[in-house]
Amino acid sequence: MRLGGRLQAAIEVLDDIETRKRPASDALKDWGLSHRFAGAGDRAVIGNIVYDALRRKLSIAWRMDSGNAHDIAYGALLSDAEMSAESIAAELVDDKFAPAPLDETRLAAWESRDLADAPSYIRADVPEWCASQLEALFGDDWVREGAALAARPPVDLRVNTLKANRAKVLKELVRAGAGEAPLLAGAVRVPPLRALGRHPNVQAEPAFQKGWFEVQDLGSQIAALVTAAQPGLQVLDYCAGAGGKTLALAAVMENRGQIHAFDAEKPRLAPIFDRLKRAGVRNTQVHANPEDLVQFEGQMDIVLTDAPCTGSGTWRRRPDAKWRLSPQQLERREMEQREVLNGAKRYVKPGGCLVYVTCSLFASENNLQVEEFLRENPDYSGVDAKPLWHAAVPDAGDVLPIFPSHGMVLSPERTSTDGFYISVLQRNA
Ligand SMILES: C[S@@+](CC[C@H](N)C(=O)[O-])C[C@H]1O[C@@H](n2cnc3c(N)ncnc32)[C@H](O)[C@@H]1O
Fold this sequence. Notes:
Layout: H1 3-20, H2 24-34, H3 40-55, H4 57-64, H5 69-78, H6 85-92, H7 104-112, H8 120-123, H9 131-138, H10 142-148, E1 155-159, H11 166-173, E2 179-180, E3 188-190, H12 206-209, E4 213-215, H13 218-226, E5 234-237, H14 244-252, E6 258-262, H15 272-279, E7 284-287, E8 300-306, H16 319-324, H17 327-344, E9 348-358, H18 367-376, E10 380-382, H19 385-392, E11 408-410, H20 412-415, E12 420-427
Parallel strand pairs: 5-6, 5-8, 6-7, 8-9
Antiparallel strand pairs: 1-3, 1-4, 2-3, 9-12, 10-12, 11-12
């Protein structure tokens, strides 16, 4: 397919997402199924245009003075795809599958409008109702933080130290564009795509099949380190899901001590068994039944609660979720977070720690949630987050997360990670 056909496909997918309010991945998959002639390269470019357009939906629409799928898809080519109006026009000449060209008035708007004049939520590319949440966490920096959430993300890999080291993984993945990640001495990063490029499918690599690495954002890797899990400890991963953090904990614990991985939704645990096997993890028991946990009450050195959340910290990777999120969903997530914290606290031993993590950048899911927990649970105290950061990320140099009233906030802008909140609460001895 030439660029015209790919652009037309992206417009159709964007239309489908908008009209049926469905996830981008579903709409792209359906398009692929009904256009089987399209190759992997075509799908990658179509996906890039769709995701770029969704990440910057408001700012592109504002500059174009139009928010329809056709115009924001063109806007995506003009921004993240680094094309000029002339180069797009030249590529579309004689392409019978190309969409209608961009209207002159749209192009004139694009060229004359300055985003600096737009309202702040548009510059931040976030739903207007979310502005106050980001402002509560980031203060005056919130627009920059929002805008950074609208940029293309890298692909981060956690080297599985149970089986490999960074040099070994890099040797295998150098052709895929992998290099050393910032912040963590052991981590690997494939930088964000440029223009109409395509990310390698690192999970198809033999090194992945051998369990040498996992795809895991640097922020998530740091969250596992901030728990201060050590070989020999007893750890409960209370919201283990597919096991991303469980695997990271097992590696820092060098397969010694014991991890109990639990999730209230049994089907979510399904992928964990193969992942544990591939990674060579031997110190983890998986529990799908809450009654299994009774024996651990008051026994755990560390209880990790990687709580359900809006995922606002991962909007770079799932920009469609940004526009589907509603205040009602946020309220539901906050309720679930309270349930998780109150369910998990009973397993912490005196002197042990409850670690609360979200991949959200909303104050009400993060430090405000912790403030409420500490008010209601005087047997817990918040642990100062700064020393925890320095201990977990000793090579961070000047890079610092935000330290709100409790815990720490990682973000694309501050720490070049996804957005994460991590807070350690100690049960009084
Ligand atoms: C953010 S996800 C976990 C991701 C996982 N830790 C990882 O690193 O791959 C949150 C998980 O919390 C689980 N969950 C929600 N409510 C829960 C509860 N009350 N008790 C335990 N788990 C719960 C969800 O089923 C979901 O799998």
